[in-house]
Amino acid sequence: MEPTPRAELERAVEVLNDNKDRWAAFDVPARIRLLRRMMLDTWEVAEEQVKAACLAKGLSFSAPVSAEEWLGGPMAVLRNLRLLAESLDQIRLHGRPQLKPGAVRRRPDGQLAVQVFPGDLKDKLLYANFRAEVWMQPDLREEGLVETMAAAYQVPEQRRRGKVALVLGAGNVASIGPMDVLYKLFVENQVCVLKMNPVNEYLGPFVERGFRALVEIGVLRVVYGGAEEGDFLVHHDGVDEIHITGSDRVHDIIVWGAPGEEQQRRKQRGEPRITKRITSELGCVTPLLIVPGEWTARELVFQAENVATMVANNASFNCNAGKVLITWQGWPQRQAFLAKVEEILRSLPGRRAYYPGSDRKYDSFLACHGDARQLGPRSADTIPWTLIFGVDAGNTADIVFKQEAWCGILAESPVPGADVQAYLRNAVAFCNDEVWGTLSASLIADPRTQRQLGGDFEQAVADLRYGSVAVNHWAALSYGLVLTTWGAFPGHSLDNIVSGSGVVHNTLMFDRPQKSVIWGPFTMAPKPPWFSTHRNAHNAARHIAQFELTPSYLRIPAIALAALRG
C-alpha cells in the first residue's frame, strides 16, 4: 500500500474531529445496529481476508494451518462485535452490562473475582469445563463493583465530549487493530484513526470494508505508512490519545525520543515528547510453569502438543507465544516431557519468517547459546523451531529471560525446590522478578496435583503478576474469549513501560480490572481446534467463526463433527 499522503492524513483527522462529539452522544440502539451491520460486513470479507493472510504468510488456505487466520482474524472480530452488541443491549435495558447471579466471589484475601465465562449453555457445550474470571484491583469492594462498569455510558448524552484516538496497529495478528478500534469506540467513546502496520497493511482494505458502517459516519479512518506517517499523527494537535500494540522500544521512541542520549535525558528529567494519554500492549517473555505430577502417557502427549502450539502458532510471531518453560529440577518426568515437546515440534513444518528483523533476533539468541538445537533446516525465509533446554536459572541476565525471542525459539529452565510446594513458590517468584514482561503466563498442573496443593495452587495463580493467567492452556485464550481483559498487569510507569498500560477487549467494560484468569481441563477430547497438531482445524475454525456470526445451537453439531476429525 502507498503511504497515505499528508493532505489525506490531515483530512482524516479533520473528519474525526468534526464527528467526535456526535459519536460520544450517539444513542445505544443506533450503536447496536451498527455492530450488527458490521458483523454481516465482516463475515462478507472473511474468506477473502483469510486467503490474503495465508498468501502473505506462506500458508495453504486449504490446509489445517489456515485455522490460525480464521481464529485470529474474522472469528475474534465477530465475537468482539457480538459481545459488544450484547453488552450494549443490557445497557439499553438496565443502564449497565449485567452479571450472572453468583458471578462475584471473594478470594480468601478479599479480592473480588467475577466469572465472565461461560455465559450460557452454548458456551458450556462448545468449551466444556472452561471458565474465566476477571479479578479486580484489590482495593475494590463489592458494593462499588457495578459503579465501575461502562463508565462512559453513565455521563448524560448531552454532556458527553468526544476524543480522537490514534491506534497504531500491530503487524502480526489480523484482529488486533480492528479490536483495539472497537475498544476505543464502544468502551471509551473515542473515534479512531487506525494506522496499519507496514507488515500487514494488506489487511487495511478488509478492515475498511468490514467496518464501513463506521467509515461512512466519519468515526473511523484507516491510513497507511511507516514511522514518518505515524510520527506525524502522534504529534498532530487533532489527536487526543494514542494506543499502540507493538514493542516497548517503539513505545519509548514515541514517548521519549530516539534511543540513546535524547531518550535517557528526557527520562531523567521527566520530559516526554508527548503529554497525551497513551495506552499500550507491548509483549512479554511468556513463561509456561509446569507443576510436576505423575502424568499418564496420554497427558504427556496432550500437554506437549499444547506447549508446541504456544510456540508454533503464527510462526511464533505472537506477543503471547510460549518462550520459557519453567520446570522442577526434581521432576522424574522432566526429560520425558521435554523429549515429547521436541518430538512434536520437530514434526511441524517450518514456517515463513515473514516478520522483518526476526532473522537478526534469532541470530542474537544463537550467539548466546551455541548449544541450541535446531529442529529443521534454516533457509533464506525460514527459521527452524529451536530449543534451548537446561538454561541456568541462576544466570538471571540470560537473554532467554530478558528478551522476547520474536521467532520460533523455546527455552527451558529447571528451578529448584525442596518439594513441589517450594518449587511452585520459587517458580512464581522467578517469573515475577526475573522474566521480562507481565502480559500473560500459563500454569500447567494435573487435577490430582492441584487437589494436593489445595489453597497453595490458587495462591500461585494470585501471586503471578501477569495481566492474563491461564491454567492448563495457552493464555491466548484470554485474548480470544474477548469477555476477558487483555493487557499488562497494572502498575508500569511511563518511563519503565515493560508490557504496557491499560487493557482492551473487556466487553463487560470493567474500569478496575487487575488480571484475567482462565481455568481449563488438563486434557481434552476431541483435541482443541487451535492446536497446531489438529488435522481438521481449518474446517472447525471456519464453523466457529460462522457460529460467532449467528450463535445457534444448530451450528454446534457441525463444529463438533469437524473437531472430532482432528
Search tags:
21 helices; 566 residues; alpha/beta; 21 strands; 16% strand; Aldehyde Dehydrogenase, Chain A, domain 1
Description:
This protein is α/β, with parallel strands linked by helices and 566 residues long. It has two domains: 6-102 and 153-281, Aldehyde Dehydrogenase, Chain A, domain 1 (3-Layer(aba) Sandwich), CATH 3.40.605.10; 286-519, Aldehyde Dehydrogenase, Chain A, domain 2, CATH 3.40.309.10. Helix content is 42%, strand content 16%. The chain is built from 21 helices and 21 strands. The strands form four sheets. An eleven-stranded mixed β-sheet has the order 1-2-3-21-17-16-9-10-15-14-12. Helix 6 (176-186) links the parallel strand 4 and strand 5 (190-195). Helix 12 (297-312) crosses helix 13 (334-347). The longest helix is centred in the first third of the chain and has 30 residues, at 28-57. It is globular and about 65 Å long. 52% of the residues are buried.
